[in-house]
Design goal:
The chain has helices spanning 16-27, 39-49, 66-80, 103-129, 153-173, 199-203, 217-228, 230-233, and strands at residues 7-11, 31-36, 56-60, 85-88, 133-138, 178-185, 240-243. By secondary structure, it is of the alpha/beta class. It has a single domain (7-249), classed as NAD(P)-binding Rossmann-like Domain (Rossmann fold, 3-Layer(aba) Sandwich), CATH 3.40.50. A seven-stranded parallel sheet has the order 3-2-1-4-5-6-7, with helices on both faces. Strand 4, helix 4 and strand 5 form a beta-alpha-beta unit. The longest helix has 27 residues, at 103-129.
């Protein structure tokens, strides 16, 4: 793999998919800068990955604020020399009827879209200096394929924006050898669902996926590492890749 000594920024890096990706990137020889709102959780995850702190750093803050993104990119340059990969992973999700959505709901989803926008804006100059890079965004299966049982117009509005951002950046920065792709997951068992569903309710979604099970963090991480690696995905850009157990293949 060509991930050794790469510098990787991961938003939403304290738990779930972000933390799993951080562990796998680090195991492949990459250096990591984590971002999230909860500093204590970031510190715990960073210590678990590398207790010496030599290959992992973190920047706490709201990724929807441009200053947080700038601090994250600056940390990568200061500690590790630049930025090679950005994994825009921070997310919130709650199925809710359209008419029940509040202004705060929509603002929260759009704040994450702002975070993906500003994190990319902060990372790209260093990628240009280093001759290229890779941005991987977390989109959503629901933004591709609406499901009556799980209405989520607020989240899907923002994630549709993530898909559009992905394609626009892919075209604009292809001359700089910066590849930009997105992953569109279905139900993935992460702490995101802890406040929404009981274990039994979450398990009931296994049959929703044609492959017969909910996704796990490792399923998304495998796709992220593939897309980040120039040796395996160096001719792939502008793709929104469903990693969804077959949901978007057709009716199940």
């Amino acid at each position: 793999m060509s991930l050794k000594d790469k510098v990787v920024l991961i938003t939403g890096g304290g738990t779930g998919i972000g933390a799993d990706a951080a562990r796998k990137f680090n195991a492949a020889g990459a250096k990591i800068v984590l971002n999230g709102r909860r500093e204590a959780m970031l510190a715990k995850t960073a210590s678990q990955i590398d207790s010496s702190g030599k290959t992992v750093a973190y920047v706490a803050g709201d990724i929807g604020q441009a200053e947080t993104s700038r601090r994250m990119a600056a940390m990568a340059v200061e500690r590790f020399g630049g930025v090679d990969v950005l994994f825009n992973n921070a997310g919130v999700f709650e199925p809710k009827s359209f008419l029940d959505h509040t202004e705060d709901d929509l603002n929260g989803y759009l704040n994450l879209l702002r975070g993906y926008f500003f994190a990319s804006q902060a990372a790209i100059p260093s990628m240009r200096e280093r001759g290229g890079g890779s941005i991987i965004n977390i989109g959503s299966m629901w933004a591709l394929h609406a499901i009556a049982a799980t209405p989520c117009s607020g989240s899907s509005t923002a994630k549709g924006g993530v898909h559009a951002l992905t394609r626009n950046l892919a075209i604009e920065f292809a001359p700089d050898n910066i590849r930009v792709n997105a992953i569109a997951p279905a139900v993935v068992e992460t702490p995101l669902f802890d406040k929404l569903l009981t274990a039994e309710q979450l398990a009931s979604f296994n049959s929703f996926h044609p492959l017969g099970r909910n996704g796990q963090a490792r399923d998304i991480t495998a796709a992220v590492l593939f897309l980040a690696d120039d040796s395996s995905a160096g001719w792939i850009t502008g793709v929104v890749l469903p990693v969804d157990g077959g949901v978007t293949a057709g009716r199940n």
